[in-house]
Amino acid sequence: MERNVGTRLQTMFQQLEKLGGKAAKHQSGDDLQQIRYITCKIFQIITTQEKIHRDSILKNQSQLELLLQTLKNATDRAVLVNIINICSELLGKTQVGKKASAFVSVNATNIVFQTLVQEAEDNSPSDDFMLTCHHVLARVGQKDRKFALKARLNRALLVTLNLIKNNITNFRNLQLLLPVFKLYTNNSVNSSYLGKHNTIPPICKVVLQCSRKHASVLKFGLDILNNLTKSRNNSARTIGGEYVPHILALYNDWHHTDTKHRHVAIRKGLLNVLKNITNLKSGRKALVEANGIRVLYESAQDVIECREMESLILLASVIMRKCCPRNKLPISNVNSVVTFKIPESEIYPAQGTENSGIQPLIDGGDSDNSSLEDDDDIDSDDERFKTDNIDENEDEAGEPAPVACKRSPEDLRMYNFLFPELFEIECSEGTNESIVIPTGSLEAGLEYTKSCETEKSKSGIYPLSVGNLSKSASTSSGMYRMATTVSDFPDPSACYGSGRGGQFSGANTEYIDSYSSRSETSGSKPGASVISIDFPMSQSLSTKSSAAKKTAVQKSRKSKGSKRPGKDRKPKKSIVKDNSDTIASFTSSLCITPIPNIVDPDEEIDQNFLYDDDDDMYEVPHDPTMYQEVARLTKSVYKFEKIAYPDFVGATSPFDIENLYHRKFGEQRAKVFEDIDRMIHPELVIDRDVYDLDSIKARTGINFLPDNNNLSNGDEFRVGPGGRYEPGPDCLRFNSQFESGNLRKAVCVREFEYDLILNPDININHHHQWFYFEVSNMIAGYPYRFNIVNCEKLNSQFNFGMQPILFSVMEAMQGRPYWVRTGTDICYYRNHFTRSAQVTGGVKGKTYYTTTFSVTFKHTRDVCYMAYHYPYTYSTLQTHLTLWDQTVDRDTVFFRRQVLCETLGGNPVPVLTITAQPKTDSRDGVDEFRSRPYIFLSGRVHPGETNASWVMKGTIDFLLSKRPLAAKLRDMYIFKIVPMLNPDGVINGNHRCSLAAEDLNRRWDNPCPRIHPTIYHCKGLLQYMQMINKIPLVYCDYHGHSRRKNIFIYGCSASMSWVVNDTNNPGVTGNKLEDNGFRTLPRVLDSISPQFSLANCSFLVEKSKETTARVVVWRQIGVNRSYTMESTYCGIDREGKYKDQQITTHMLEEMGHQFCEGLLRLGRGRTSYETSYTLPCETSLEQLGAYGTATDYIEDDGCDMQRGDLNRARAGKGYPDLLVDAEDDSSSYADSPDNDENDNDAEDF
């Protein structure tokens, strides 16, 4: 039977092929009658017989083509109806996919559209026929990606629209028409076209008249309306038709009737329409007038505990936040509270600064696209968050690199005095020959010195001569040191020309003059600093300070135990072979960064020895009295009221493990809803200012000017029930008038909730991130919520496990003087406070972001401090420098603390020189001493990156320690260190800029001596070293990173430079395209440091970074290993012992130790590129060692340790079993920045 049916179908198609292929005008009456009969019979067969016969037609493409060709040529109504019905039956109602694809492949869509339009243009069109055509189109359109375009080209859009208007109350017909119309509106051009032809009213009418019985029609109608309202014009038409209140009411009805959540899709569709409409200001106004915020808020609160309704809650929150009134920050203007008069600069006129003016700014108006904004803030040296336009980069890819701004040799000789290692040490040979300056004759140097003695230096530094350097005097171990003195020069004011008045003034002058006489009575030793200074101290204070030191050391060693990172193993002996007979000779003291063979290639260093020897670690106990005296000499822009207690006692992080914070699901949404509730119920808002730095400035007037001579701290007398408290309101009290403090205003909005506003950088109106303030008068056991409401960055690590830090004075008095991670309900999200258009570069409608967290205090009436990260003030640095200077072992360590220059604010910028003392005072010993290659380190160019200072502290601690590895490192290298490049910003609580209102890390290309003195002279040091052929082997600038975890490095690769065929760099030499030695240090650090991540490292050289320290030192100075080392504020997520832990001061200091150990490994291998400049003879690669991974150091150096032994050693230290292939220089970590961390949190609305 089936065979007979199949044969009949085949016979009919053969007959149809003879007749249906003819054009209509060539068909006779008999032919037409025959076609009617055949198509009718085919329809009867496929409707009455089994599915196999329908499938046989679908599989036979020629038969489908014949049917559609007949449909295209036919004009008879009966034939058209038969074929359309055949097509409808073939497509069926279920499993349409493959069937529809078969129709699309034979151009069925165009033919059906043409048939539909022809029928609509007929004098008496058949609605039933056209509905059947829509039934076919609805199924075919699911597989035709150009369905909407074909509909528009065939002029079918208005045909369907007219059918909808004619059947607006016929829900059965609408079920056939709306699916096709939805496919039309998926195309934005079609949506705009239909909107112009009055599509919105009928669709809205369909939506509003649907009841629960017509849920399917309502779903299609909402999908169509959602597509239409994506067009701004169509949204405006919907608003103009006053449909917003009706849509809102419909949503409210469905919310109350759909109690079992069976129609979530309908409710979601209504919210999507409202979301599109509220992209317009008029739409937001219409929803607010319809009381939409309250309706959406209450409906969301009803289902907030239901996880299945999360999508609805998300949409409702987005709509509410867009519609909430936009407010200005409750401050008079967005500029910083205090200003500083910036000196005029010929290089950079006033309009060249980040903030060309300090006049009050007026907030811009609202914008229709305010919710679609990009981040305009860049991290210190991060390629991931660049702002350069891609097209612009492509167009300018062929441009050469910037030309360096060069200084004359005569100008650079002013830095002679900052190289005591070259000029102070004299030979003990019988002759009286002096040490010749490498850049010229002794006579030339003395002549230059005499000329400088008669006139002030215009660059802010007084150059010392060889004669002056020979006058150096030693100091006793109990004295402060200022390496550069003004007493040796005829005109002391000539020492500093870049500060206010061009000299030390005020307290610093007294500081030097009062105590310089102490150096006269101290013992003398060749090579010591020029002057030593000590503070007068009463006997009681001195005894107390000494006892405090002793107690601090005992507590420090007692409290560490096994909790301190890296301290849970017993020290093991290092395996060191005697290499006294294998030390290579050096060419001369003038060679370019020669790498000494202090470490023998066959030497093995036991990794377990690296961080276990506590007794040899150089740890200086904190001295509060010394800190107080140093803080009183620090110059600020405005008056400080006190010394912060954590800085006074030298607070650090605890030794306990602090895991990353894991917030509960929905915390961010809950905080957003609390903000919305505050706007819905303004009567419940207290809105009382409890701290206002602007008001304090206005009230104190001239008394607000800086005068820090009497700073102290009395917090211990304020705490507890019996503490001294000034009368005032019964709420929290705030203060930020201390060094590095930043809080502009605090507003009590509810009983236990406070809005906090940060102060921007001095002389500018943005860069709000760093905060550090005091809070007191709290009640224990109550959760206080703090909202920092003027943050700027698009996202924050506060969304990914980071917590702020808290210091409690009462806890410190009980023996726990630590900064601890604190806070719950932590999140970061966009708020409703608008940013000024002048702040955002002319873009209107951008808003600030809120960092919110809740803190439950342990003690009533405590005094606590809260900060973004562990503070490290300028006074802390000066105190540490003084303590280092007092206690360093000068018999073995060559240590000099000198002043590089003076900042705009009048604060000295220290520069350190650290190396080993000469082994002998013979000519060979002195030559070896001078021949050591240089390592140049700098940090804290961005004031808010305090983590950089903690890493720097760890580095200096290690270099001055008695560890054998530290001694080896000092024997190998000379370290030049500028630990703080932006003291003024640090002192005044800035986050990124200096007092010149500029990011100093963007001024390295051409710094101005008047407004960028620290960068000008730091670069001058490097240029001086370049001039005397002492280019550093490594330059590293320490930074912090706010949006990534781990610690990592940015380097420079010519092959990854924005400059095409970049040959203007130190990595290109001869026929070698690139020297890959710069990859060694990151690989070594990854193998020895559990907090360092090679995967985060990048070596891109972008055009936007050409003015940063890393790229300028690489390109202009010629340092192949020029790095930026970025440290996280948050924590560690790489595999190892620190995984999922918050970063601590001890981890950061440990990173400084490990960085030094990594530098030690650089002496174990050299490239032919380096040795061509440093060795007078040919050397094989085996003798030089290989640049690569930890495996290279083992295998190439001939050590007995095998790969498996290395993995076991690394596993014992908590490192992953991972060895990077030394030959793979194109790995993903080097090709692109880290992409693991998504800036968009799942709950970030």
- Residue-averaged pLDDT, rounded? 76
Structural class: alpha+beta
| Fraction in helix | 25-40%
Low-confidence stretches: 351-398, 430-614, 1165-1245
Strand content: 5-15%
Largest beta-sheet characterization: 7 strands, mixed
What Rg do the Cα atoms give?
Answer: 38 Å
The largest sheet has its strands arranged as 14-15-17-16-18-20-19
Number of helices: 47
Structure summary, number of beta strands = 22
Distance between the termini: 65 Å
Shape: elongated
InterPro entries: ARM-like, ARM-type_fold, CBPC1/4, Cytosolic_carboxypeptidase, Leu-rich_rpt, Pepdidase_M14_N, Peptidase_M14
GO cellular component, one term: cytoplasm
Domain Peptidase M14: 870-1163
Family: Belongs to the peptidase M14 family.
Would you write up a description of this structure?
The protein has 1245 residues and is an alpha+beta fold. It is 39% helix and 10% strand. It is built from 47 helices and 22 strands. A seven-stranded mixed beta sheet has the order 14-15-17-16-18-20-19. A six-stranded mixed beta sheet has the order 3-5-6-8-12-11. The longest helix has 22 residues, at 539-560. The chain is elongated, with a radius of gyration of 38 Å. The two termini are 65 Å apart. The model is unreliable at 351-398, 430-614 and 1165-1245 (pLDDT under 50). Residues 350-404, 541-578, 1206-1245 are annotated as: Disordered. It catalyses: C-terminal L-alpha-aminoacyl-L-glutamyl-L-glutamyl-[tubulin] + H2O = C-terminal L-alpha-aminoacyl-L-glutamyl-[tubulin] + L-glutamate. Its EC number is 3.4.17.24.
